[in-house]
Amino acid sequence: MRPLLGVPGVDFSVQDVRGDFPEVLEVRPLDRPPDATVHVPGSKSVTNRALLISALAQGSSTIKNPLFSDDSYWLMHALVRLGFHLHADARAAETRITGHRGIIPRHDVEVFVGNAGTVGRFLPPALALGEGPYVVDGTARMRERPVGDLVDAMRLLGAAVGYTDEQGRFPLLVEGGGIGGGKARVRGKSSSQFVSGLLMAAPYAREPVTLEVEGREEWPYVGITTEVMRAFGVEVEVGEACYEVEPAVYRARDYEVEPDASAASYFMAAAALTGGRIRIEGIGARSAQGDLRFAEVLDEMGCEVDVGEGFVEVRGPERLRGVEVDMNAFSDTMMTLAAIAPFASTPTVIKNIEHTRYQETDRISAVATELRRLGVSVEEGRDWLRIEPGAVHPAVVETYGDHRMAMAFAVTGLVAPGIWIRDPGVVTKTFPGYFERLDALR
Fold first, then answer.
1. Fewest C-beta atoms under 10 Å: which of 70, 148, 309, 346?
2. pTM of the model
């Protein structure tokens, strides 16, 4: 059980976010196709990048429309423990934070990151800038998630970092003393967050930093990182599988977080599955979030999709078509696709997603197990899933502590009766009001 903590200056806690959820929650089918406009919370990915960069900037920044959830709570909690002045106001939908030009105010601090991958991978390079020592730890699942590629790259850049038990996992011990700079090769097959964490701290290295990355063909989440860095005044030179950062200082500013594309995918899928129309406001063609590509998948499945300036609208067809799609670059929506795939007219194949085995849970195995529990025929490979069309039977869906399992399979329940979600409170990791928003479609 995670600790329930309150933090001075932060007007919400993990207990506030989680609220009061039942052990299992029934998702009732809709009586008719929805015709709705939906607003989703701010992007987790953008929120945590903006929070950390604000803490590294010179002066006071205001983050507008940040996500208030488990993951952002753990980063705010860590920043306060590290001595940053931070005031989070959930009702006003903003967070103010004062940065110290790359200086970490306190040393000899232990920070707990829950099961927040962004926090656990973003903080260590930033902490290397401080006096140290710092210990970064998380939940039991966080201690199973890979971090060795980040540690190896930090060492190549001259940062003093290691493991408290030399098992190649969390907890990490960051000795501090600064980052020398230079060149490092970063393996990002298991997570692009390693690259993002290194980039955000790189402007305060003593020498220029060059990151040569390997493991993927596309790096959309790193694109979000470079966009937020640029917004705070630091340019990143982007080459082919290479990123270069010169010594620089982030400039404080007011920054607005756009809605979360991953969260939007559930409502796009709801329209696709029910034959309804749903419009998501606040995110559109200019977004750097790779998960918006889920709209392209729905288009291929037969939906009418309009991605405009500041909105996405999906109209579902009479029946979906199956697809074969490489989801490596937008894998957080993999489960959303899997949850609607049984209702398509032909099989769906999801490819190149091995890294999802190392996230909140082994997502390939979890999806296959729960689809089979629902009576669906599934084939599972090391980095792929093949889902056959078929009738969905009533069942209680296990969520494995993974917010996306709960949100994705809740969409299934909009058309299939008898779907119950175990531990629905896991959605608070990124979308505390998810079930209320979903139920409002009726």
1. 309
2. 0.90
